[in-house]
Write a structure and sequence with these properties.
This protein is α/β, with parallel strands linked by helices. The chain is built from 13 helices and 15 strands. The strands form four sheets. Strands 5-6-7-8-9-10-11 form a seven-stranded parallel β-sheet. The chain has a four-stranded antiparallel β-sheet with strand order 3-2-1-15, with helices on both faces. A two-stranded antiparallel sheet has the order 4-13.
Length: about 375
């Protein structure tokens, strides 16, 4: 496909309510969107980098610069046949997975439109609906958390994930379990603990958690392997997994029994599928994590979650949980059964609200292929 233009935008979008994790509070999202125009079609990708380099080394401004100065021009000079060619195109640039994913995922969207397939079909999805869980940030108080859980369970969500950190863990789990002894419950530490906390972490076994997500260092397999030997509860790795090799290493070392796949973290659909396949071949279940995406990134997560080994409810939830007005239509909604229907129309399955995107845009750059010199 001929690349006519790569348009990079930054949007500012306030969250419906603050979202707190062990490394900080997010109230407003600086959203980076990649719009790729090709032969009359338009594909969209979303860069999931955060406002600060806390979850990963990437952040909003670093992603903007690497797309504008390196990745965007590289892509504009190519004529990719499919999204799977993007990792080769971007190979000279090390890291910067979230920036790369924004462009690669837009190419997969374009390819699906061109071929007349839904994005799910193009990826090899096998589901018509996906089960949904919800991720709850650290709350100002336990009573406020309990009220939030009650609301989300009433909305149909099939798994409740609690962000945790030292001082906000076992007391919270105990009260939640006393109130709801049978719900599917997990926790996510975002690397808030150290191996010296192992005795404390083993106490989590008492609360029948589906998993403990990324309790230790963000780039570690070895100490997670030591900790998993002491735990009955499965460890799920998130930040540590950037590619298929990482997944294989973690599985071989028995560092985890579950893997979270995030499109941005692994660099796009190509590597996400490779991680999925590696885990499936070895009997390790996976699920799709979220990064406070708009409907564009959310539509990509929905398509990814349709693959066969996504057997656990992911963090793909309704648009209205995060944004008053999402930038796609229809907005992403979750049924009373806690499911999202997989779109079957060509491409990502959700139309962008171009007028709203334009109003929310605070900066914009267009990258085009250089003119060929005769």
């Amino acid at each position: 496909m001929r690349i006519d233009a790569v348009i990079l935008r930054e949007l500012h979008m306030p969250l419906v309510r603050p979202f707190e994790t062990s490394f900080g509070v997010t109230r407003n999202r600086r959203v980076l969107l990649a719009e790729i125009q090709s032969e009359g079609l338009t594909g969209w990708g979303e860069c999931t980098a955060s406002e600060q380099p806390y979850f990963s080394a990437e952040w909003t401004d670093s992603a903007w610069m690497v797309i504008l100065q390196e990745l965007g021009p590289m892509l504009a000079e190519t004529s990719p046949e499919h999204g799977g060619e993007c990792p080769g195109t971007f190979r000279r640039v090390r890291g910067n997975h979230m920036a790369k994913a924004a462009l690669e995922d837009a190419i997969w969207d374009l390819e699906a439109q061109r071929e007349g397939f839904s994005l799910s079909q193009l990826l090899g999805g096998v589901r018509e609906v996906i089960p949904c869980g919800v991720s709850l940030g650290i709350q100002p108080s336990i009573p406020e958390l309990m009220a939030t859980i009650e609301r989300e369970l009433a909305a149909g969500y099939r798994r409740i994930k609690l962000k945790c950190k030292p001082g906000w863990d076992v007391e919270v789990f105990e009260q939640v379990r006393n109130r709801w002894p049978n719900i599917t419950l997990s926790c996510d530490a975002n690397s808030a603990y150290r191996l010296r906390d192992a005795d404390h972490l083993t106490s989590f076994d008492a609360y029948n958690l589906l998993m403990i997500e990324q309790p230790l260092w963000h780039n570690d397999f070895y100490y997670h392997s030591m900790l998993q030997k002491r735990l009955n509860t499965p460890i799920c790795l998130d930040e540590s997994i950037h590619n298929r090799r990482d997944a294989l290493a973690a599985i071989e070392m028995e560092s985890c029994r579950i893997i979270n796949i995030k499109l941005g973290r692994v660099g796009g659909f190509s590597e996400a599928i490779a991680v999925h396949n590696a885990a499936q071949e070895r009997g390790i279940p996976v699920w799709c994590g979220g990064m406070l995406e708009t409907g564009i990134g959310r539509s990509h997560n929905i398509a990814l979650s349709s693959l066969e080994n996504f057997t656990l409810p992911g963090d793909v939830s309704a648009s209205a949980r995060y944004f008053k007005d999402d930038i796609v239509e229809p907005e992403v909604t979750v049924s009373s059964a806690g499911e999202i229907a997989i779109p079957d129309t060509p491409g990502r399955g959700y139309e962008v609200r171009a007028d709203l995107i334009e109003r929310l845009t605070v900066r914009k750059e267009t990258i085009r292929a250089r003119e060929l010199v005769a």
